[in-house]
Amino acid sequence: MRAIWSGAIGFGLVNIPIRIYSAIESSTLDLDMLDKKNHANIKFQRVNESTGKVVAWENIVKGYKYGDDYVVLDEEDFEKASPEKSKVIDINEFVKQEEIDGMFYDTPYYLEPAKNGEKPYALLHKALEETGKVALGSFVMRTKENFCMLKAAPGGLITLFKLRFPEEIRATEDVKLPSRTAVKPAELKMAIALIDQLSPKKFDINKYKDTYTEALLKLIHAKAKGKKVAPPKFKMVRNNTKDIMEQLKESLKSKKAS
After folding, report:
1. Which DSSP state fits 198?
2. Where would you tag: which of 20, 176, 215, 218 has the fewest CB atoms within 10 A of its CB?
3. Other CB atoms within 10 Å distance of the CB of residue 158
């Protein structure tokens, strides 16, 4: 793995040198865009709007529209805006993880101690583990400020989760929710029974796989060999009755049968 950011964690007056690694990788297939006529690869080019000519990466700069012109920014400008946040993940407070709603979670990363960071790294991990708390802080990566959470994971590892800022979460006013809809006690009891039936004694997240990508890859292999692939028969299962109690009863029966 290649580190995507290096700096330090600011834990009070203790600095912990670290490197950040991405903790995830996509499970989707890498599909190319092709011309339908001859299957030639479609290429995207960076074209100058005024001249129509292709611009090389080394000649591209970033700018902010200011009035009728642009203010051009270079890498030094981004660091000058907040040099400490470009180099330090500053811990602001410690909270219980359950206080953070799942809506705020974004991307997970692994943190690795850099040179001279092993001991303070282990200390922070142990302190997080003992208190059952997570650390909240912020840092700048790729010209963007990131709100983040540090968590003690098994095996002595500290993980970092990028969190969404509160202003990035949309309000719910436009979401139409049921109003004054009465839930009958018997229906609630049956719904809870179905939840209990679908609750495993021991949860194992490893049983969840990306089966669609696997099926798509099988189809690709078949087409590559010249085989015709017939679409599988699929029928949406619908219940003839609109009575929720009857639907719940049927659900419980079908789950017991399977």
Report:
1. T
2. 176
3. 23
